[in-house]
Amino acid sequence: MPARYLAAVVIAFCANVACAALPRPGGATAPAQVPDKTVVLTLDDAVKSHIAVVAPLLKKLGFGATFFITHAWMDDTANFMSWDDVSQLHRMGFEIGNHSWTHGGFNSAESGLTLGAELEMVEQELARVGVPKPISFAWCRNQFGPEAVAQLQAHGYLLARRGMQPELPYGSDTVGLPLDVTKHHPLMIPTTGDAYPYWSFENFKAVVATARGGKIAVLQFHGVPDKAHPWVQTPPENFRKYMLYLKHNGYHVVALRDVLKYYDVARLPDDPMLRVRYPNGVDPDMPAPKMRALFEAAMKAAPNPNQNK
Length: 309
Fold this sequence. Notes:
- The chain is an alpha/beta fold.
- It has 9 helices and 8 strands.
- It has one domain (3-301): Alpha-Beta Barrel (TIM Barrel).
């Protein structure tokens, strides 16, 4: 998608969501300044606890969030949301993002070319329950490649969140890069903190403390809890503690779509990640069981550090 067309699409979108500070062609209006303590909250995989636990708490606190939806596990109705549940999240005011139909890896040239069809499958189900076409995407398994980037551009996606990789190894409990809108392309937004069961409260505070000086902390959660995928879940009591900390300390908790107004879309960053294939030369269907073994071993070795706090 040419930069001029992308700018026109973003401006048209922002006209509908009151993003008045987005730049217009010719630079008539400067991008909005990023306030300190801005945190983007994202939740992946359409887990049942998103509608049962997370959404009510976020509404009570007045927080925004983006829920990234995949059909991959929806047949497990005990643990994952239905499309009607997703529609309810939309009606509650939350952003609904696309997380592909199968939750596959799209890092290879071949798999990257299949992403467009999967985006459309999710879009069709969302339209059926009254949810608008998403503008945000989350890279499945935190994997990406140039062909998949081209598919996002061709299908009109404006924002995409990646993981902490390749800068940090998968499963790291250290602090990732905060979003810098002058360096990170909107289709390669890094995760600052990826929550796991063994995350400590101190680690969470260190992640959100990066939200200053024009930088934005981007949080990635999965189920709260996630009984089907316990190696990436967050215990509900921990999630509540994290959210109350943000509320009591004056953080602005927003959806991914809300960062558009901070970008100068006439001069988007030349982010080298747009040309990176991650992981390179790895079968995208192979990492998942290895990840599960890694996290199950970590959970056995490290008790929940929040339990005694």
